[in-house]
Amino acid sequence: MNFVDYLFEDITDPEKGCILSREGVLTYRDLISRINGLASYLVSKIGSGNECLLLSENNFFFIVVYLAIMKSGNTALLVETRISEPQLAAIYRQCHVRISFIQKKFSKTAIEGTIITEETLSSIPPASGFASTPTREDDVAVVIFTSGSTGEKKGVMLTHKNLCANTGSIVQYLELTPGDRMCVTLPLFYCYGASLLHTHLRAGGSIYLSHNIFIGGVIRDINTFGCTGFAGVPSTYQILINKTTFLKEELPTLKYMLQAGGHLSNKYIRMIAEAFPRKKFYVMYGATEATARLSYLPSDKVLTKLGSIGKGIPGVTLEVLSEKGTPVRPGEIGEITAAGDTIMQGYYGDPEGTAAVVRNGRLYTGDLATVDEEGYIFIHGRAKNIIKSGGYRISPNEIEEFICSLDGVQGCVVIGHPDDIMGEAIMAIVQHSAKQPETDLKEVILTRCKHHLPGYKVPTRVFLVKEFPLNASEKVDKPALVLYVEEELKKNDKAGQ
Amino acid sequence: MGIPLEEVTDSLAYNSCEQWDSLKHLQMIAMIEEHFDIEIEMDDIIAMENFAKVKEILHKYLT
After folding, report:
1. CB contact under 8 A, A213 and B49
2. Do B42 and A243 touch (CB under 8 A)?
3. I need a surface site. Which of A76, A197, A303, A371 has the fewest CB within 10 A?
4. In chain A, which segments carry CATH 3.30.300.30?
5. Which CATH topology does B11-62 take?
């Protein structure tokens, strides 16, 4: 089934507003007729089975274009708005883009061929009906370009079947209803943000596109627009907790909060769960390669299973396997693997890269984890993030978690830095919470680490920063931190001479 | 943000400037707070939507 038809399959009230933003309100009828208009335009111009690129922030333009491309049986290539010219040029070289949909403020020189902006789109008339181009369930609906570990973009190909399966599963476990309204701040060009759009349309609910210069504006938006749900990545919650009155707010309409996109320190999970005992707070885990969501921790377990990513969502077989390929025993470390209808078709133009992570329909995530007696999964680090120091394989998570629990610390990232003797030396980059950190904060951190951690896990150096650099997914930009550490070490070398 | 100085006018605004996104905004606020040794209220952080507003609000903190 065409994924867009699946989304609107059960809509009973076409006059209901489904997309709200500063631009106004789109009802289901408005949205569907705009999608139909553009889909029939696309079929008349390029037919189906072709690729269209979309580069836009969250707005009506993005949503109409994204859904119309899929509805017309074409493939939507989604790229982040902060993409660099060389990266975008590489996508044009690699792909066969027939039409580019570009929000005007992101006009870049790398863009080739036919361009449609939000202004030219308005000349394409809406249409009340359009029969979807027949799609096979393994037709690629969307390609999401994510950053690989080397910085090169990898295009994750997701099919209509992938999208339908993940959407249905999330609607089921979150028990979404037409009464639900999600406050969306996450970019729709990544899978987490897109899943919020998909699930709320499928449930007959609505979303509010919150577009604030500062994330703190969501507090006002949630209240003004009566949002029932909110979703964030770790930095979203850390900024809200540390820079706004978030934890003291009542947010009377809000029923549930979602957190995914990386590990949020246990101290923040606890703060949120304790500040909002009557709201549901879901800690979740996912991967673009699995359409979006892979696991969730039921909200009533958030404190008793603190730090766990929970168990597989409905329809996904999530298993932690040992190197021998058998499920691990409780306490034993293994790799998280996933099987089900949501596993991607592959990386665009990269069968070797695909074969390295998907084998026999099973996704090998590269994330290392343990499972407790009751089957709850706890992540211990990403395989590629593991620091190899002095013959030990060290997961940064435990060190980060410990440093984060100390007073005066707002966040912490631990990385390995090439070291002649140790292989890699452990470097801790610490975001301090006070405006001016205590002068001895570095020493205090090191002393506490020495008392609490085995010697090989104690950082060689601690660096203090006021803010972490963030990437387009609003996660900490680790390559930028690696460069920062190199620069700081060079400065120190010079000062020491 | 890598914007040439001559393009930094009062009308330079978050909504129309590609480089000025919410992350850059937060970094800019942190730099201003550090440089002037002040702490900017949340409502003011939200209101700093263009360069004229940034100057106007900053003026309030410095007088």
Report:
1. yes
2. yes
3. A303
4. 386-496
5. 1.10.1200
